[in-house]
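Severity: low
Component: inverse-folding endpoint
Summary: output formatting inconsistent between runs
Steps to reproduce: submit the following structure tokens with default settings.
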């Protein structure tokens, strides 16, 4: 039987992009990773990688076989996950990547409480990152993400958690100082934002566009953005679930509540189709708790 380990090593190297990162993920030394790739090149008489002191890029031959090697890697991961599932033990660490703004979402908090109560041997590890984290490079089991680029990676398996609308919010003190009765009043307010955006607004047969990002304060962390708005520095848009508790408690006030902004689909995505028993348990709880929140909103 042909040895497939070098192919798996090559696929991991393409994902990690450096010998050192691939070696760490594979649990071997960087020279061992290099030797596996060199073995393939020597045995089949092709060059798979262009090597420099800083970068590794696949040659034409390397790109030609890259997808086949990636499929082989995914199949092997699925096989090991299936073995873990057959074992049925719900225990161990589950790494969950999510944006910092979601830390305040009631459904996430309920999910964590349920997980710890129902499966005390599972250890959740939360990887807060407001970008689109590479799940395989970060060794993450689940990512919670939304937006237009959430499903750009065709290798990810997505499960819809919820659909949430954007809402405009401010601290009550700021709202009291800056009267906003129509969309055109928003231009006179100070805006805080994570990234520039253009969001459509609707009230019945009326339409408007909300433009964010020409002026104001840009904040590169969603959790910090929420804290600054709570402190009364200006307006910002948030997904409604991320500020549900703030709105209910009065810490924030919704601006133009009779206008509806666009919605975002939020997904739980995984790098593999077959999951370990512990990851399946976490996914089940997340889906159930976010469904509860969505049902209450209807």
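Observed output (run 2 of 3):
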């Amino acid at each position: 039987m042909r040895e497939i380990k070098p192919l798996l090593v090559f696929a991991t190297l393409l994902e990690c992009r450096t010998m050192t990162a691939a070696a760490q993920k594979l649990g071997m030394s960087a020279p061992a990773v290099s030797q596996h790739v060199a073995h393939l090149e020597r045995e089949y008489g092709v060059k798979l990688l262009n090597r420099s002191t800083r970068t590794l890029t696949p040659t034409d031959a390397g790109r030609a076989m890259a997808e086949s090697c990636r499929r082989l890697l995914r199949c092997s991961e699925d096989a090991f996950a299936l073995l873990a599932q057959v074992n049925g033990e719900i225990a161990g660490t589950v790494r969950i990547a999510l944006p910092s703004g979601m830390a305040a979402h009631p459904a996430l908090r309920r999910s964590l409480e349920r997980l710890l109560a129902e499966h005390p041997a599972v250890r959740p590890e939360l990887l807060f990152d407001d970008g689109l984290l590479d799940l395989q490079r970060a060794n993450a089991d689940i990512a919670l993400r939304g937006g237009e680029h959430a499903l750009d990676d065709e290798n990810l398996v997505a499960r819809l958690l919820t659909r949430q609308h954007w809402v405009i919010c401010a601290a009550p003190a700021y709202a009291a100082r800056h009267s906003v009765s129509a969309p055109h009043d928003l231009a006179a307010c100070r805006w805080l934002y994570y990234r520039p955006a253009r969001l459509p607004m609707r009230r019945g047969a009326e339409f408007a566009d909300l433009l964010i990002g020409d002026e104001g304060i840009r904040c590169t962390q969603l959790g910090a953005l929420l804290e600054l708005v709570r402190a009364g520095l200006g307006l910002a848009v948030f997904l409604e679930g991320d500020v549900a508790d703030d709105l209910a408690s009065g810490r924030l006030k919704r601006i133009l509540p009779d206008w509806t902004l666009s919605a975002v689909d939020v997904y739980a995505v995984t790098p593999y189709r077959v999951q370990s028993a512990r990851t399946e348990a976490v996914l089940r709880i997340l889906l159930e708790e976010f469904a509860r929140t969505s049902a209450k909103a209807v």
